[in-house]
């Protein structure tokens, strides 16, 4: 078994009309043994920026703490929050620094730029960055998630429609994956607020 599928995860980020949504499942397991179902893999950096981390959970938590440290230093020096595109490049740089002993985590960055434009990017363990205008996916169930997102995404969705689309894609995707699921949490980021909702899903 790959170290990336040791704990299991399913993360989807999707862009809408001046809004962006990111969601993850809530399962924490060790291979096929489920330990808890209240472990989100999406972390808040600030009100307009969220980070999803799949892979080995201990590495994901360590990476999140180091990124928060870097963001807080930036905020102290610059007296403003880091833009999502800037954060993506900083994250890419942080991963490339550790390329000979990498964190076993695959990140997805979702946020709104200062002009309200959605920003999505993902990368591998050594920081090779890839941006997207529609959606980004990471975790242990990419095939089913890609199929659902490609069939259901459309441009310029409003926040409520975007939430519903991400919810249906995420639930349909991880229902076909034994390593992910057991509930989900979704954050919809708009210009003036963040809507966070927890979903009850199949628990088998």
UniProtKB/TrEMBL annotation:
Q: Which GO terms describe its biological process?
A: proteasome-mediated ubiquitin-dependent protein catabolic process
Where does this polypeptide localize? Cytoplasm; Nucleus
- PROSITE patterns, alphabetically? PROTEASOME_BETA_1 (PS00854), PROTEASOME_BETA_2 (PS51476)
What are the protein's UniProt keywords? Cytoplasm, Nucleus, Proteasome
Q: What broad class describes the main subcellular location of this protein?
A: cytoplasm
Taken from the UniProt entry, a GO cellular component term is: proteasome core complex, beta-subunit complex
* Gene3D superfamilies assigned to the protein according to its UniProt record, in alphabetical order: Glutamine Phosphoribosylpyrophosphate, subunit 1, domain 1
Give the record's family classification: Belongs to the peptidase T1B family.
| Name the UniProt record assigns to this protein | Proteasome subunit beta
* Organism annotation: Pleodorina starrii
